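Check these lines:
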Amino acid sequence: MAAGACAVAAAALIAGAPALQAGPAAAVPVRTEGCNDGFDCDMSARIQKVDAYLSNRPGITGYVVRDRVTGAVHSNGNADTQFWTASTIKLAIAEDLLNRARAGFIVLTPEDRTLMESMLATSNDTAADVLWAKFSGLDHMAFNNAFRANGMVALTPQQPTTGRAFPDWGFQQCTPADLDRLMNNVLDHMNPDDRAYLLDRMRNVDTNQHWGVWGAGAAMRPGLKNGWSDEQGGWVVNSVGFAGPGERYTLGIMNDLGTQGGYADGEETTTRVAEMLFSGR
């Protein structure tokens, strides 16, 4: 598609006119002349619309969207900003537990697996506490070492303020780019059986997590792990997951509301971004 056609498509979508329809995955070129970050022109226009939307939303939002078929990636200006992870870190905990069990380094009992499923399905904090205490090692660094090895290279543990041991899963900061690398590490490097299990759990989260990447819509079969927390500096509302046939697209989005909004604003922002990017693709 010519550069001029791309500009027309972008302008049409931003103005609310009917968007050009994307072709089947096999027909999408790796690079499309004149379009944003190598995305096809429909997705390029969607990204422009998202960035315009975020410029008027409360707080600071960083995100990374990836097309795993073409290799195209878009990172906005806050993609390398540190945010509190909130419960998105539970995805990294689950990946590491499954990897270690697969390698024979630990044994996950039926009770452990029930806790892990609760941690993913309802974002149960007590379940995460129990698993962290049992499997974080004598120096409490087993998980954090794995997090970095699995792509979260900018992850930074923070000193707990409640007398908990350092590091603790609930006192961690990372970037949206870390969440992007984590999600793609799950998709690219886990044992196929463990990956299929984890993706199934992410697609079947409780209704309290039907937001964020869930905004992609049922037709895109999204899976996710959300995180929300009322920190001392204000609400943090995050989402990481995948959408599309064969988990084609991934999205990591983090929203620090500060003094500009609350949980409902963050839920609306993250959900709307996923909807604008993926719905109808």
